[in-house]
Amino acid sequence: MSDYATLQQLKDLLGSSGDPNNPAAYEVLTDRVGQTDGDDAVGQAILDRAEGTIHSYIGGRYEIPVNTSGDAALANILLTHTLNLAAHIAYLDQLASEENEPEDTKRGYDETMAWLRQVAAGKIPLPGDPASPPTGTAKITAKRGGDDRRFNTSIYGGGS
After folding, report:
1. Rounded to the nearest 5 degrees, what angle is found at the Cα of 157, between the Cα atoms of 154 and 160?
2. Per the confidence metrics, is the pTM higher than 0.90?
3. Per the domain annotation, does 158 fall within a domain?
4. Whether the Cβ atoms of residue 2 and residue 75 lie closer than 8 Å to each other
5. Sign of the CA dihedral running 104, 110, 115, 116
6. Is 158 left (phi over 0), alpha (psi -120 to 50) or beta?
7. Would residue 136 count as lying in a domain?
8. Residue 135 has pLDDT above 70, yes or no
């Protein structure tokens, strides 16, 4: 089972007819034999690879799998990027080339990879990241200034 996208969501994205006499993209891209019957084990493996790619980029900054419960924005972002990667993987596996990959699938893959690189580099946070300041505010870092003298009786006098 996947953390960010379901097999049904992948089928919906690619198109699935469920009819071997009239196969849609899901059936063609996941059937490794006759390209007419969708293979859900292959579809799940594609989703797992997509999520593995996401984890390899964001795992250095966030605990994985990312908990998306209660954060619809985060869940939707990870869903979109998982499906973008899964569609690209499905076409690339079956066609062995990006030449015949639909343009919108290529664009989605490129956008996802750019986003993952920015998250991994710390340039953009995941939604709900408590370490990121709210939009429009500055993150303030306290710095120590002045000299290194310590408070003691030789500087301020006194004592008993």
Report:
1. 105
2. no
3. no
4. no
5. positive
6. left
7. no
8. no
